[in-house]
Design goal:
- It is a single chain.
- The protein has a single domain, classed as SGNH hydrolase (Rossmann fold, 3-Layer(aba) Sandwich), CATH 3.40.50.
- α2 packs across α9.
- It is globular and about 50 Å long.
- The chain has 214 residues and is α/β, with parallel strands linked by helices.
- Strands 2-1-3-4-5 form a 5-stranded parallel beta sheet, with helices on both faces.
- Helices cover 49% and strands 12% of the residues.
Length: 214
């Protein structure tokens, strides 16, 4: 197993990670972080693995970078899981204020900075990068097709950063596209962005397999 007894994992990201962890479903949220926790409990009853959810809805990589010291480094985790990118892309496509700050090139620069500071301050910490995803088969739809097309550079950045820093990589876009052979898109993510319970379980299962090395 990659994860060891007594270790700590921080999950950080946007609304997909958040899932009410600061409100009704505190402290783990009601999404893949909680499901991952339950999988660990089922596989390793009595384990002393600490799980911390630091997702915040609407966040971009800029937001994560701003709060990285307080929400990640401060906890001195043994592992960090990062899932971010879809909000960055959406800001560019919608040309919201300062949208130029969220392009794939800027995403690459900030991702590199975040991983570099983590390796410097927590040299023994393991990292797993989850690529951003968009769950649809409707490539002909004006908006959904556009999102799918423009997601590719952000996915490429995550893959490049993972290779460059030697992190784990979970290719969620490919995984969900494979699942679309068996399920309707609405069963996995009704709005293509936010997973349904089944979608969250798929993410949790991928993480579980990564850490437990099934």
């Amino acid at each position: 197993m990659k994860i060891k007894e007594g270790q700590k994992i921080v999950f950080i990201g946007d609304s997909i990670t958040d899932c009410g962890r600061r409100g009704e479903f505190a402290p783990l949220g009601n999404g893949y972080v909680r499901f991952f926790h339950h999988l660990l409990q089922a596989a390793l009853p009595g384990n002393r693995i600490t799980i911390i959810n630091k997702g915040i809805g609407g966040n971009t990589l800029i937001d994560l970078q701003i709060r990285w010291q307080d929400d990640v480094i401060y906890h001195k985790p043994d592992w960090i899981s990062i899932l971010v990118g879809i909000n960055d892309e959406h800001r560019v496509l919608r040309k919201v204020e300062n949208w130029q700050d969220y392009t794939a090139d800027n995403f690459r620069q900030r991702y590199q900075e975040v991983l570099a500071v983590t390796k410097k301050q927590l040299p023994d910490c393991g990292l797993v990068c989850l690529e951003p995803f968009y769950v649809t088969t409707d490539t002909g739809h004006q908006w959904r097709g556009l999102v799918l097309e423009n997601l590719q550079p952000y996915r490429k950045v995550v893959a490049e950063m993972s290779e460059g820093f030697g992190t784990g990589l979970i290719k969620l876009q490919e995984i969900f596209q494979e699942q679309l052979r068996f399920f309707e898109a609405e069963q996995l993510a009704p709005d293509a962005v936010h997973p349904a319970p089944l979608g969250h379980m798929i993410i949790a299962w991928q993480l579980f397999q990564y850490f437990i090395a099934l």
